Amino acid sequence: MRNLFGGKSIVHLALAWTLLVMVPACQAQSGPNLDKHARKIHKRLVKYPTGTYVNLAFRDGTASTGMLGKVAETSFTMTNAENNVPETHYYSEVASVDSGKEYIGEGSGSGHHFRHWVPVAVGVVAAGAAVTAFEVR
Fold it and tell me: Which CATH number characterizes residue 53's domain?
């Protein structure tokens, strides 16, 4: 058999034929044809669980805030926070997306919550008073 196929065994030829014919037929189908930015937005939205509060900035300069719904291959749904209407948007429409937090009122954004410092301040004052009372005795 070696002389018939130029020194190659039948096993090697069968393996080569299988790789040449079968591998291109078995390649995975790619997802939707999204541009680089749309794939980036899709990748970011997939990380958020359904119901996450998100802030969206669109390429036309508008912005929207709401709860994330179903994330599909080319689009996603979100319930608008202003009017509770479900909206469908394509990834190519979105300029940026980030996870939002609900801040109500002026100056109530991140880092402006003084209620966390009140117990700390009361504890420091109480500890100082206790040390002073102990030292005075």
Answer: 2.30.30.100
